[in-house]
Each structure stands twice: as structure tokens, then as C-alpha cells.
Amino acid sequence: MLKYRLISAFVLVPIVIAALFLLPPVGFAIVTLAVCMLAAWEWGQLSGFTSRSQRVWLAVLCGLVLAAMLVMMPEYHHAVYQPLVEFSLWASLAWWLVALVLVLTYPRSAAMWRHSKTLRLIFGVLTIIPFFWGMVALRGWHYDENHYDGALWLLYIMILVWGADSGAYMFGKLFGKHKLAPKVSPGKTWQGFLGGLLTAGIISWVYSAWADLAVAPSTLLICSIVAALASVLGDLTESMFKREAGIKDSGHLIPGHGGIMDRIDSLTAAVPVFACLLLLVFRTI
Questions:
Q1: SS3 for the chain, per residue?
Q2: How would you class 175 by CB atoms within 10 Å of its CB: exposed for 0-12, middle for 13-18, buried for 19 or more?
Q3: Per-residue pLDDT tens for 88-98?
Q4: Mean pLDDT of all residues in 247-253
Q5: Cross-strand bridge partners of residue 185
Q6: Cross-strand partners of 258
Q7: Inter-axis angle of helices 260-275 and 117-139, to 10 degrees?
Q8: CB–CB of 232/266 below 8 Å?
Q9: Each residue of 104-127: b (16+ CB within 10 Å) or e?
Q10: What's the whole-number mean pLDDT along residues 68-90?
Q11: What is the mean pLDDT of residues 251-276?
């Protein structure tokens, strides 16, 4: 299993970096749209749709909705200024606050959505669509002035999430004693959680010193810590839905890693929350 994980990582990481820095915003948006369609396909299983044809239609519908939203945008690289995108990012902030309550009160909270495919689909919409717009909005950061500013921001949030996850894993292995959310994800501990936040703070400090981000270090630190918190919540939320669906992995597309949602669950929360804080709350654009 470890061998497959390493091979997949060595293949995927260069592809992700190439997509960030080599694709124009439209091309990047199309690639992100394809990823979101795969995520929608897997979310169909989390929503209780076991039929392959139903999940295919969910993926197609997701792609059509996102494509229609893209076509409606007058200028793709100024996406954050559009009401549709602003609404998506604010909706994401609201959804992850709701998700926090659902996770903290699980399994009692599952009584309200366990038997409702509609509610679970709505949760999927609030997860996938804001993630798409968070990715697109960050990639378009100052695109007229520098084609790579947005790519640096997206690279940063990915390093932040992956670094915080690695920090949490190491601290959890070394010092983990007290369970964070045993009914949702028994492997996570408070010590690992705090270690992940510490790692996120260090990454924020190092990255702000290395890259010319034109953002106050204190602002970046606040956005980064909140995004790291959101990434943990994204992971826990997907674990909660998978537990209710009775599955271990959201899919089997990536050898050794499971499905697309298993790889981007933390990012689906961290990216739109980070974009919302950076672009709409602190207005750093």
C-alpha cells in the first residue's frame, strides 16, 4: 500500500504544480471543474445513490452547473468581484460553521440528515461549488499584473493544508493521548490537532518571509490558522459522511489514496474559507 501511495504522490504532485503555474485561468478552471465532477460522482455514494447511472448524472449535472456559472462570468480573472462568487464563498463559511455543529453533535446530528438524500446532496453542493470558486478566485489573484501571483497563493494553501496534516500526524504519533472526535475519526487526537496548528503557523511565517505576498504577516497568520482549522473540519466531515454510508474510502481512483474526495476533503473546506477571509473579509485584493 505504501508503495502505491508513494508512486501516486510522485505522479500527482508534478501534475498539480504544472497545472498551477502553466495553465491560464480558463484552462485551470476547466481542470478544476473536471476534479469537481469526479468529487460529485463520489459524493453521490455519500448521499446514498448506489446506482452508477445516478452518480454519473450527478457528476454531469455538477459539470453543467459550474460551466454555466463560468459562462455567466464577464471576466474570469476578476471572479472574486462577481456577486455569484461572493455568495458562494460566504455560503461556504456558513456551511462549515453548520458542519462544525454536525460533527460536534454526531451521532445525534445524523438523525436529521441520515435518511435524507436531498439534505446530503445540498451538503455536497455547499462543499464542491464553493471549493471550485475558491480555487478559481485565488488563481485569478492579480492576474493582470503577474500571471503567477494566484498560483503562489494556491501553492501556499496546499502546502499549508498538507503541512498541517503531516504535523498533526507526527505530533499525534509522538504525543497523542486524548481523542479529538472519537465517534467520527478515532485516530485523531487533541495533541495532533494542536501540532497541526503549530505547523500551520510556522508555514505561514516561513512562506511570508520567502514569497512577496503583499499581505501583512498578521493577516496571513489569521487566515492560515482559520484555514488549518477548516481543513481539519473538512476531513472530519467527510469521515462522518463515510461512516454513515458504511464505506472506508470515497472511491478507488487513486491507487493507495482512495478517491478524489479522500485527497481533497481538507482542501474543500480550507480553500473557500481562506479565499473568503483573504479576499472578502480582509479585502487584501
A1: CHHHHHHHHHHHHHHHHHHHHHCCHHHHHHHHHHHHHHHHHHHHHHCCCCCHHHHHHHHHHHHHHHHHHHHHCCCHHHHHHCHHHHHHHHHHHHHHHHHHHHHHCCCCCHHHHCCCHHHHHHHHHHHHHHHHHHHHHHHCCCCCCCCCHHHHHHHHHHHHHHHHHHHHHHHHHHHCCCEEECCCEEEEEHHHHHHHHHHHHHHHHHHHHHCCCCCCHHHHHHHHHHHHHHHHHHHHHHHHHHHHHCCCCCCCCECCCECHHHHHHHHHHHHHHHHHHHHHHCCCC
A2: middle
A3: 999 999 999 99
A4: 73
A5: 181
A6: 254
A7: 60
A8: yes
A9: eebeebeeebeeeeeebbebbbbb
A10: 77
A11: 83
Question: Phi and psi for 107 in degrees, rounded to 5?
Answer: -90, 0
Q: Which of 11-25, 75-89, 207-221, 265-279 has the lowest mean pLDDT?
A: 75-89
Dig out the grid coordinates for 64 from the structure: 453543467
pTM, to two decimals: 0.92
Dig out the grid coordinates for 207 from the structure: 512562506
For residue 33, give the nearest of 146, 133, 124, 145 by alpha carbon. 133
**pLDDT, averaged across the chain:** 87
Mean pLDDT of 239-247: 90
Compute CA distances 36 → 39, 68, 148, 187, whole Å: 5, 14, 23, 27
Asked whether the predicted pLDDT for residue 236 surpasses 60, the reply is: yes
